[in-house]
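Reproducibility note. Readers wishing to regenerate the assembly model reported in the main text can use the exact inputs given here. Chain order matters: entities are listed in the order in which they were concatenated for prediction.
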Amino acid sequence: MSVVYFIFQQTMYFMIPLMIVALGAMFSERSGIINIALEGIMTMGAFTGILFIHFTGGSMNGQFQLIAAVLISMVTGMVFSLFHAYASINMKSNQVISGTALNMFAPAFAIFVARVIQGVQQVQFNNTFRITSVPLLGKIPFFGPLLFQNAYITTYIGIAIFLLSTIVLYKTRFGLRLRSCGEHPQAADSAGINVYRMQYAGVMISGALGGLGGLVFVVPTSTNFNADVAGYGFLALAVLIFGQWKPVNIMLASLFFGLMKAIASAYSGIPFLSSLGIPSYFYKMVPYIITLIVLIFTSRNSQAPKAEGIPYDKGQR
Amino acid sequence: MDYIIEMLHITKEFPGIIANDDITLQLKKGEILALLGENGAGKSTLMSVLFGLYQPEKGVIKVRGNEEKITGPLDANALGIGMVHQHFKLVENFTVLQNIVLGIETTKRGFLKMDDARKKVMDLSEKYKLFVDPDAIISDITVGMQQRVEILKMLYRDNEIMIFDEPTAVLTPQEIEELMQIMKDLVKEGKSILFITHKLNEIKAVADRCSVLRRGKYIGTVEVAETTPEEMSEMMVGRKVNLTVEKNPSKPGDVVLEVKDLSVEAKREGQTKKMVHDVSFKVKRGEIVCIAGIDGNGQTELIHAITGISDMSTGTVTINGEDVTKKSIRYKNTHGLSHIPEDRHKHGLVLDYNLAYNLVLQQYFEKEFQSSTFLKNDKIYEYAEKLIQDYDIRSSEGSYTTARSMSGGNQQKAIVAREISKAPDILLAVQPTRGLDVGAIEYIHRQLIKQRDAGAAILLVSLELDEVMNLSDRILVMFEGGIVADLTPKNVTVQELGLYMAGAKKEGGRS
Amino acid sequence: MKPKQIKDHTGILSSIFAIVLGLIVGLIILFLCNPKQALPGFATILSGAFTHGAKGVGQVFYYATPIILTGLSVGFAFKTGLFNIGTPGQFIMGGFGAVYVGILWTSLGPAHWIVALLASVILGAVWGLVPGLLKAYFNVNEVIASIMMNYIGMYLVNWIVKSYKPLFNNLRNESRNVAATANIPKMGLDKIFPGSSVNGGILIAILTVIVIWLLLNKTTFGYELKAVGFNRDASKYAGINEKKSIILSMMIAGAIAGLAGGLLYLAGTGKHIEIKDVLASEGFTGISVALLGLSNPIGVLFSGIFIAYLTAGGFYLQLFEFSTEIIDIIVAVIIYFSAFALMVKIILSKIHKQKGEKAEAAKEGGTKS
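Running the prediction on these inputs yields the following structure tokens for the assembly.
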């Protein structure tokens, strides 16, 4: 049984950042802007957040420090995503190219600045945020160890973001208008909606959530940050497509991928699996192979927002 | 003179083009004013200026006597102006209700409150007899119902001044009649209507006055009751126009194309539906057979199946006695078939290639134009020059012009030139004159007759009833995927044709 | 001036514009970090390669070789309407093929290096084939599919090299040396550029550029590939087998990137496949090279050399206590602004189009009564 709890807790560490970033991507793409820059946004968010924790290591600790870092990551992500927004919306540039440029920029920048500030490129930090057991809730049989032990605040923030996203997208005026921009910007425009402003909002949300996701990815699984988020930004895009741009499906897809990743990294702690003798590389490859297979089945009838990736041009009729 | 809208000396420019050149338009309260002009005359641009989508460089707009600045649809709406666009501005996967309220949703602290909206919509729907299902998804409902949603959008916003941009292009004859009646009812309730069109019979049916635009300039306004269609057409085009095509009677020869029991199935909304239903017909040398019908009754699928662009589920296609059902598109193109496609940008041209490369699109692989896969560019440009001369294709840089920068009419001429100069046995021409000005239309009609007289078999697909009646030697009407009538133009009236097209009448059956 | 020439000039202008902006941003960052050393550092980036004579030039060619090819791979795919972001995966698979043959098939004598290169081409082609097939038959977006293949390739290569003893150098966590016969011959370049690492690889790269240019612009095959890239529907209408074109495109692009990998690991410079979970940066640099070179094979050749030139200059930066990542930053910024440049190009050609329509209308107006 403790194996099940262990696997689930590990899954949470991988699922939550993936889900947060994918939900962010959903807002961007639903407004009509493809955001490939997630890898770079995650890197920038993680970098500034971890750097903050590193430097305040002596004077702050605990959940308060983490929350401050969360805010910093989100702001960083949002600001960084503005470059993508400006290029895509105002300059009508090819969204894949500007996204790729940002992805190339982020790790180089993180390494360069780290070296300038502290001499080496790896940023160490002290992890004082793990909650071994939430008071009261951690003692519930079964669900206690599953959800409320060995957890982080960020796990719950992630779940809250999921719930919020679903409500905002489908039940609010903002969500309705956002979706109309991604499906038929001309219709939104003639209804008096400012398409450009909606698209900026979408990209900035993806920036904030992307930055947060970067931080959430690094904290539970490492003690340092080395300018790399292991392709999570791209995996989040796959989750988005797998989830057909819908929040609930995205959550389930993240759960699935998180489980795969958890097994890949922690399988040596699972007696059944480690006795099979399958090398770790196989588990590392599995999420990507599964993504390809899933894409084969879902790309035919893709529910992608109809107008995504096409720069909206008022002049066209 | 009680003008509710005055557009005075409006000039609207785009880079390199003056779309509206000093135009004055005046709409009286409670009237239906038709705005007549060819494609590209500037009608849609002028209306977009009124609706706030564009800002004019010069000129003034007055609403109810007051000068107003309309900076966007919200301003227009506030002044009571609404617009039903030619290409509907509806979000396909939203419901009817969501589309109607988009932009002026009732909310409580940001959350959508749909109940009051729903009630208002249903009340309006009843009052104006515009029947809709508020929870239906747009992509599932008919075009006629989609248009009613657009009209309800205007009524929901209490628009008094309604602009209709080419509303009948996508409707059945019955739906067109219903729309005409709706417009008359709206005017009875005190609304004023601006009706953009290039169809003279509709103007005659419903409009009080008609303003004419030509090439961005204002020509004049006439009382519809006192003006003939010929006079209006002359104002629109600038010269006398022959509204009918002159041709000799046809002399049909052998059968060139035979289609037997052709069916096409497609998956729509999770179900398999027969888009084309056991269609059989023959086309002979020297005749023009026209497939008439409302858009969406299977014509597109039928042509795609015959050419090979899509698959058919059952049936055979024979050209000159040879069964080509399973042959590749390339095979058919090199064994007597030519195809002028419905969508010249999607299928007909590679817009980013130049004119010359587009003119050899069907023949670049032949010995004339390549040797061991190396292109013979000099031969290609020679051939292109010849076609440009013979078919009078105009472009800014001759063979080197990028297809994208050519006008619609010349793009179509290029496609026609390419397909006809292959000297096909069977020519499929699908809506060959869509979106073109009168000059280009006349030209293409002449070419088709010429080919027919030279012995080609022509299968024409058209949505324009005039073209169907004028050009064809035989008419096959398609309705809901099947052929419901085989008619001779001499023996049928336009009204009867309309009934067949709407499925209200079947040949050999009761109406 | 022929219209085509006007368009090319705007393209080149926009690339230059992006390069200048990128360099300026780089200078600003250097300034912010260490104002005193910023200007000398910047000067080194711009001139570093030249200040070391023939050896420096040779080094530039050496660095340029793989990225010219990965750039060609991306550019070729772009011309056919596909975004080949899978070059890192194709590159490392190609490198693996070359190393495998290079270490194990030692009895091939003088043909050894040729066979090793062939292996890299074939493996790269296979790695490009997969996203091509997925796109042609299942409409899977080639960007995501290629990204997945990057990671699968990286893990696969690391896995095989690490677990197969003849290939693996345990002490240094990388692949072993390839046999001397597998190294690409110098082809006389060591005499022209003595002391540098340059070898026949650069000549092979240039040859590939020429072949691809001929293919794209002078053959019916190129005509079809470009037509499919521009308009898949019209190509189908014209009888072109668009599925076959897409698949062949990706295969060729993959083969070129694979060749790049082979040329790098057989250069005889002590380059080994390191067992690290890091994607090959030469792959991503290829994207920058292709964009700067406007996807034109000749342009790719020049932009590959240019970026190699910057990179070479960057190495000498370490004397000034700046880390070499500044070069990556500069390149990333150049790419970012090159995306704007496309828009400039579009505006200029739109104006051109309007002028064209006016000219057309004038011609027609003249002949009508």
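We highlight two features of this model. The radius of gyration of chain C is 22 Å. The first strand of chain C starts at residue 168 and ends at 169.
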